[in-house]
Amino acid sequence: MRIGILGAGGMAEALGAGWAKAGHDIVVGARHAGRAADLAARLGARAGTLADAAEHGETVLAALPHTAMNDVITSLADLLAGRALIDCSNPIAPGPDGLVLTTDGGPSAARRIAAAAPGAHVVKAFNLCAAGVWAAHTEGLAVPLCGDDANALTLVRTLVTDLRAVPLDAGGLDRAGYLEATAAFVIGVWFAGGDPRTVLPPLEQSTH
Ligand SMILES: NC(=O)c1ccc[n+]([C@@H]2O[C@H](COP(=O)([O-])OP(=O)(O)OC[C@H]3O[C@@H](n4cnc5c(N)ncnc54)[C@H](OP(=O)(O)O)[C@@H]3O)[C@@H](O)[C@H]2O)c1
Questions:
Q1: Do the Cβ atoms of 14 and 38 come closer than 8 Å?
Q2: Whose C-alpha lies nearest to ligand 1, atom 30?
Q3: Residue 203 has pLDDT above 90, yes or no
Q4: Contact 21/45 with Cβ under 8 angstroms?
Q5: Within 13 A of 71's CA, how many CA atoms are on the CB side?
Q6: How far is CA 129 from CA 90, 143, 194, in A?
Q7: How far is 175 from 152, CA to CA, in rounded Å?
Q8: How far apart are CA 85 and CA 164, in angstroms?
Q9: Of 117, 125, 112, whose CA–CA distance to 171 is shortest?
Q10: d(CA 145, CA 168)
Q11: What is the pLDDT of residue 10?
């Protein structure tokens, strides 16, 4: 698959490494040419501008901070038309009582990205686990996906299974906000020293 990666940070490297290993044809695009070149060299991929990556990918991973997403995606909107656009962002920030959603009361980050690039097919995915998890321990991990376009979802499911993880269809893009809220909750619990996995025991432990 032709994959474009926007950004050359932690998520770009963690996900890109798995996809490069699976044999995909990757262009890493970043605002600083040296950072794109360094990551591309580590992945065995090619480097380019953000526009080069958007143009190259039938699937494009937006591995950018939520705060930068709107401007970058708007500037690439024409190039992203028809692409599967993966949004892994977590629009979260520290609040007085823990992490909060910076989108609170408004559209989800995924919906904002879809509005910034109306021709792209946005799929929310990969936002629930840390970059270090994607780099190391994805075997058997369930990866929820939210999106509206059947072809884009098929492409992203392939990229999930290439990481030896398991796609979990989680509804249309209108449900992406639930994944973003889940990230705010579980990351907040981890930051506070808790283990959010203990909140959801296996169903077999229920008496009903
Ligand atoms: N890290 C995690 O564990 C994790 C887990 C799940 C989801 N996420 C989400 O994944 C996304 C990426 O996170 P990350 O950890 O990979 O971030 P990161 O390591 O900080 O990398 C961010 C990348 O975005 C680029 N960037 C920042 N501002 C930009 C702008 N205005 N224009 C163009 N490029 C810009 C940075 O370029 P420079 O190097 O030039 O600054 C860098 O290449 C975020 O939305 C985050 O919420 C992260």
A1: no
A2: 68
A3: no
A4: no
A5: 4
A6: 10, 9, 15
A7: 16
A8: 21
A9: 125
A10: 6
A11: 98
Reported as a single tens digit per residue, the pLDDT across 36-46 is 999 999 999 99
In this structure, what token pair is assigned to residue 110? 């995924």
User: What are the angstrom distances between the C-alpha of 96 and each of 9, 108, 188, 194?
Assistant: 28, 21, 12, 18
- Which one-letter amino acid corresponds to residue 38? D
Pairwise CA distance, residues 173 & 53, whole Å = 23
Q: Whose CA is nearest to atom 20 of ligand 1?
A: 9
Residue 113 Cβ contacting ligand 1 at under 6 Å:
no
Please work out whether the CB of residue 65 comes within 6 Å of at least one atom of ligand 1: yes
User: Would you say the CB of residue 153 lies under 6 angstroms from ligand 1?
Assistant: no
Q: For 48-107, what is each residue's pLDDT tens digit?
A: 999 999 999 999 999 999 999 999 999 999 999 999 999 999 999 999 888 999 998 899
Rounded Cα distance, 191 and 208, in Å: 33
Strand, coil or helix: what is 154?
helix
8 Å CB contact between 180 and 110: yes
- Give the whole-angstrom CA distance, residue 4 versus residue 7: 10
Instruction: Locate the ligand 1 atom nearest the alpha carbon of residue 92 and give its number.
Output: 47
Sort strands 59-62 and 98-101 into parallel, antiparallel or unpaired.
unpaired
Domains in the chain (CATH in brackets) are 2-91+106-173 (3.40.50.720)
Query: How many Cα atoms within 13 Å fall on the side-chain side of residue 126?
Result: 31
Residue in the block written with tokens 């290439």: 162
